[in-house]
Amino acid sequence: xxxxxxxxxxxxxxxxxxxxxxxxxxxxxxxxxxxxxxxxxxxxxxxxxxxxxxxxxxxxxxxxxxxxxxxxxxxxxxxxxxxxxxxxxxxxxxxxxxxxxxxxxxxxxxxxxxxxxxxxxxxxxxxxxxxxxxxxxxxxxxxxxxxxxxxxxxxxxxxxxxxxxxxxxxxxxxxxxxxxxxxxxxxxxxxxxxxxxxxxxxxxxxxxxxxxxxxxxxxxxxxxxxxxxxxxxxxxxxxxxxxxxxxxxxxxxxxxxxxxxxxxxxxxxxxxxxxxxxxxxxxxxxxxxxxxxxxxxxxxxxxxxxxxxxxxxxxxxxxxxxxxxxxxxxxxxxxxxxxxxxxxxxxxxxxxxxxxxxxxxxxxxxxxxxxxxxxxxxxxxxxxxxxxxxxxxxxxxxxxxxxxxxxxxxxxxxxxxxxxxxxxxxxxxxxxxxxxxxxxxxxxxxxxxxxxxxxxxxxxxxxxxxxxxxxxxxxxxxxxxxxxxxxxxxxxxxxxxxxxxxxxxxxxxxxxxxxxxxxxxxxxxxxxxxxxxxxxxxxxxxxxxxxxxxxxxxxxxxxxxxxxxxxxxxxxxxxxxxxx
Length: 580
Hints:
Shape: elongated
Low-confidence stretches: 220-227, 314-321
Strand order of the largest sheet: 1-8-7-6-5-4-3
Distance between the termini: 27 Å
């Protein structure tokens, strides 16, 4: 038998691999890893050393949500919850660094550490019928070998002879009940003769010691990424030991989830509120006593009324629409058009900054570049809608870093042509800050008072990260990520304001896509090869390793269609599932 090592990057879920990590998380990881190195005393007993491992895992990721402790004779386990009564999800076998005789190596994998791990696994899986095991680990503090429980299920628990022999031993039918006998007479021969290869992730923490001990550089004035450049090499190491991977959790920062804080404050800036009526969540204009003249909606309504710019269509109804309703709907449609442009530009700005390695010279959605609604209107129609050589000299000088976008989004809409453009809004108006605003002062306290509406909108957007989603970077400013999928959900809710907005939470779309796609894959393979596989594990075992290309072609032949695409919410989850 030989180990089949893979890198952390190969083992991580593709969607999780692309997620960024916040700077404070990386710094905590580095500090705790340094502390682990400094606490190690190689002459100490294993009990001492495994406590160091437990503290490192708890302090970096697992405390207080997950219990880490010993379990009977098992060195360490991670539970699925905060109690030792919760099922065990991760089994850890720890050895002293000096105990080379019992520690596995790529050259000598059939060692006592693997025999012990197999025994503890069989105790949980066979004796206690624990189906919640996700990963198994062998470590000697520095060297870690991480095994997917799905491989143990397939290679060990799925072998009838091994299970039968273990059952007889555990029931005393062999006449010798010592674990050493189990290791030598059951585990070792099976691994040697029956097992061809065992996949695992392996790495040595020594390889990262220099990185974690190197003080970070100060952030450069240009905004570039000179600070702790080597820290990026820690990203996959951080993820491979975290709950999303080891416990196979749904990602807490699901890119398909609605960000309620962003959504609520954006509604406030627009001049809307979400209410619940008869079990439905409806979006409506703020109540009369709560309306703010400086909100985008109220500013637009006031201009439309005073300039008599409301377009009235023939109402196909027994009761004609009131002028107030028409004015509100016209203003809201204009606000959505403008915000569509602004949020698209915020995503563009984020990508420009990311492409130019954090250079803040490529920012343009701020009050320093755009002082009022007139200049915002110029950005829409005299910059983005025109090729660079067609722009005026002043526009080129002011917005030289902004590319031409061949998009109808920056063409004047029919409604704008018939009513107003954004430059007709009043620039002088202020808007009270949202009570739970994300904006904070230098002391870290939430800001209060009023701000100019456009300045408020720019600062609100800049408080979120539109650039690092999907790029596996370190977020230096610890901002919440907002991506195109989240924005799609928000506009899906706003556009459905009349009838009540419904969107499916990310964990549900992920579950639906997982169940649907896996069934489709099973049916595809069973039909093509005449198999009768009942689950993905069984299918995986049937696939010839030498025909993986053909298997991938079979998977890729599946077509996924979502006719009511909406924000693309389901399709993103389907893509994530297909990549796994």
